[in-house]
Specification:
This protein is mostly helical and 69 residues long. Helix content is 55%, strand content 12%. It has helices at residues 24-49, 51-62; strands at residues 5-8, 13-16. The relative contact order is 0.08.
């Protein structure tokens, strides 16, 4: 990457890449992947904040089984 620029402001990230080095379809697929991973990780964090889901998971761990005694 000879001529790439990353500008960071309070509101946005701006990445400038040389057209001769990056194919548009590659950039498009890269952006899709970033967005899908962002959605994936957002869901994980939302689940951690969900008291009902977290409580239900913990209840399953606290159950005693007769075979363990």
């Amino acid at each position: 990457m000879r001529n790439s620029v990353l500008e960071i402001t309070e509101q946005e990230y701006l990445i400038k890449l040389d057209k001769s080095e990056f194919d548009l379809s590659f950039i498009h697929s890269l952006l899709k992947r970033i967005q899908s991973e962002q959605t994936f990780f957002k869901r994980i964090f939302d689940d951690e904040e969900d008291m009902i889901a977290r409580r239900s998971y913990n209840d399953d761990l606290d159950v005693d089984h007769l075979s363990e005694k």
